[in-house]
Amino acid sequence: MKKREIKIEVEQLTLDDLNESEFELVKCAKSQTYKSYAPYSKFNVGAAILLDNGEIVCGSNQENVAFPSGLCAERTAAFYAHSKFPDAKFRTIAIAARGTDGMPLPEPISPCGACRQSLLQYELLAESPVAVLLVGKDYIYRLPSVSSLLPLAFTSL
Ligand code: THU
After folding, report:
1. pLDDT per residue over 41-60, tens digit each?
2. 112 lines ligand 1 (CB under 6 A)
3. Is the pLDDT of residue 157 over 90?
4. Torsion angle of alpha carbons 79, 148, 48, 39, nearest 10°?
5. Which residues are catalytic?
6. C-alpha span between 103 and 121 (Å, rounded)
7. Can you tell me the distance from the alpha carbon of 157 to that of 56, in angstroms, rounded to the nearest whole number?
8. How far is CA 149 from CA 42, 67, 69, 100, 119, in A?
């Protein structure tokens, strides 16, 4: 029997540690939380994706009275980005949220499993790592890639 340990690299940052484009992306993700449609959960999520053509594409969670028909902010943004700019590669994604009290979450938000798998698709298409910024009020986590968020991912049929 062989044991293997899978580690992920996470940097804990403040806003001051971000470069200009990361700062802008975080700002977009935060402001997107105000465009979220979440009448049921009252949990407002915003995502912003920087593409290699310099465009930033944003999305927010969109809920539905038939609950499973709604969509998370990350997938709303990713699907929009790739439909609008099918040839562009994803570079970085920032994700922010406000909780049911309407306040920014103190700790970084972490995407659900389905969003991780969906985002991984665009990292594979980009053929280079897509950095991830998980935004909290008090600090930000920076991960080097989507695959680091989804170890042992399903990647091929
Ligand atoms: N949600 C997101 O948009 N992204 C996440 O990473 C986690 C959850 C949404 C789905 C639903 O509208 C609400 O947050 C509560 O789960």
Report:
1. 999 999 999 999 999 999 99
2. yes
3. no
4. 70
5. 74
6. 31
7. 31
8. 25, 25, 24, 25, 10
- Tens-digit pLDDT profile for residues 57-98: 999 999 999 999 999 999 999 999 999 999 999 999 999 999
Give bridge partners of residue 62 from the DSSP assignment. Answer: 37, 71
In this structure, are residues 59 and 37 in contact, taking their beta carbons and an 8 Å threshold? no
**CA–CA dist 151, 157 (Å, integer):** 17
- 44 in Cβ contact with 101 (< 8 Å): no
CB 113 within 8 A of CB 149: no
Does the beta carbon of 61 sit less than 6 angstroms from any atom of ligand 1?
yes
* CB neighbour burial string for 74-93, b if at least 16 within 10 angstroms, e if fewer: bbbbbeebbeebeebbbbbb
CA distance 80 to 43: 21
What sign does the dihedral 53-54-55-60 (CA atoms) show?
A: positive
- Ligand 1 lined by 77 (C-beta under 6 Å): no
Placement of tokens 């665009």 in the chain: 122
Number of other residues whose CB lies within 10 A of the CB of residue 15 = 12
Alpha helices in the chain (DSSP H): 20-32, 73-84, 113-126
Placement of tokens 């980005």 in the chain: 81
